Amino acid sequence: MLVTADREGEGLLQAVAEDGAPAGPVRRVRDVAAAVGEWERAEQPRWVWAATGETYQPLLRAGLRVARCHDLALTEGVLLAHEGRWGEPHSFAAALARLRGLPVPEDRWRAPHEDQLALFEPDRSDLPEGDGLLAAVLAVHAEQQRRLAAAEQPDRYLVDIIKHGGAPFGRPGMPAFGAQLSDDDIASLVAYVRSLATAGGGASPRRPG
């Protein structure tokens, strides 16, 4: 799996593991389309980029198509909908601000350059460039991988994080409650937390003890 962050034909590529952790050095390239084509023919990895609408257009113009990709903006929208937060901003800038605990900007779109095929592209005027952009893409992707894993096994993840605390799962702000709550109490609490993601909320959890 590779991450690409491009700007005006040049860019940075980096291999990452399935959990989003860096798995190789940063590779600086002067021609992103040529580099992506080389890797695509050799390995057909899953490409990760901020938004297909902006990153894929130069590749298409170069006659290149990729088999698999992870669009961070699209995935953010899907995850928000799954979490009961449909309609919240889901651009890459919004995902990055959400991750950093900053005010989340509204989705902003601007008309593309005349030679681009997309109807609209995200406004990146407030985003970092170069190494900073690559680091941001890596961070948002890793966080989305964590949320996707939690969505696949939500009950087990919530039980473990309540029982053992957040530190073992990369969420150090959550203390452990395994000594204070029984397994039944934790199961009741998980059911309540899951009910909060539905439109009408849910019943209050059974009181421990």
Task: State the gist of this model.
The protein is α/β, with parallel strands linked by helices and 209 residues long. Helix content is 42%, strand content 13%.
Word description of this protein:
42% of the residues lie in helices and 13% in strands. It is built from 7 helices and 7 strands. The radius of gyration is 20 Å and the shape is elongated. Helix 4 packs across helix 5 and helix 5 packs across helix 6. The strands form 2 sheets. Strands 3-2-1-4-5 form a 5-stranded mixed β-sheet. The chain has 2 domains: 2-152; 154-195, no CATH class.
What order do the helices and strands come in, and which of them pair?
Blueprint: E1 2-7, E2 10-15, E3 27-29, H1 32-43, E4 46-49, H2 52-61, E5 68-71, H3 72-82, H4 92-100, E6 109-110, E7 121-122, H5 131-152, H6 154-164, H7 183-195
Parallel strand pairs: 1-4, 4-5
Antiparallel strand pairs: 1-2, 2-3, 6-7
Helix pairs in contact: 3-5, 4-5, 5-6, 6-7
